[in-house]
Specification:
mainly alpha
């Protein structure tokens, strides 16, 4: 993993902790204001669809195969994996976004359709290939252009708005409760040392400044199955 990838992972990890992502709700909802057509909703609601439509590929809820591949590649560049440190792909971020857009974030469907189409136009005009076929250096250059709002093919959403929303949803998919379709195997929680819904914390646990690692880590989904 490159130095750039490592710094991006650390930025998102610290941002998630600072925004209270480990609480499993309301990660960074201010990014939802990027589109004038959106209502501010904190998280996709837990539903039966969250349990049954999760297929590991992010297909079947909203994205077609091409868009799913693009979002998977883009989010992996935002939160790249490393040996022993799962990234967006391993954590199921694509599945989280796919389910969210078919549910509580349905008002963002057009935002994503237009944004992905504009991203494709920009990549083909600049590199003559879609985003998924670009090498890592080119993908990083594209993401930087979006972040700095320099991709001229974007009208609505703007390049920066599209980048900010995808970054926000990547963080949500990494660090929200697994019931929403991401944070597979509690990868994000383990990354930031969040213990989940432990039955009890000892006085030693409460006083310790070290990352909490005691098993088991239990999410809302597991708790619901026991009810």
């Amino acid at each position: 993993m490159s130095e750039h990838d490592a710094s991006r992972r650390e930025f998102l990890r610290r941002a998630a902790v600072g925004a209270g992502a480990v609480a499993g709700a309301g990660i960074v909802p201010e990014a939802l204001a990027e589109s004038p057509q959106q209502d501010k909703q904190s998280k996709p609601e837990a539903s039966a669809a969250s349990h049954t439509q999760s297929n590991g590929e992010g297909l079947g809820a909203f994205f077609n195969r091409e868009d799913a591949a693009t979002v998977a590649a883009f989010t992996e560049r935002l939160m790249p994996g490393a040996p022993g440190k799962p990234g967006a792909r391993e954590a199921g971020v694509l599945n989280y976004i796919d389910l969210a857009l078919a549910g509580a974030y349905a008002d963002l469907q057009d935002f994503y359709r237009r944004g992905l189409a504009e991203l494709d136009q920009y990549c083909r005009r600049t590199y003559r290939e879609p985003f998924v076929r670009l090498d890592v250096r080119q993908q990083e250059a594209v993401i930087t252009a979006l972040e700095e709002d320099k991709a001229t093919e974007f009208a609505w959403p703007t390049a920066q708005a599209f980048f900010n929303t995808l970054r926000t949803h990547t963080m949500e998919g990494m660090f929200a409760d697994p019931i929403y379709g991401g944070n597979r195997d509690f990868a994000g929680w383990r990354l930031v040392g969040f213990p989940g819904a432990q039955a009890i914390f000892t006085s030693t646990d409460m006083q310790s400044k070290q990352a909490f690692t005691r098993a088991p880590i239990i999410g809302l989904q597991a708790q619901g199955k026991k009810a």
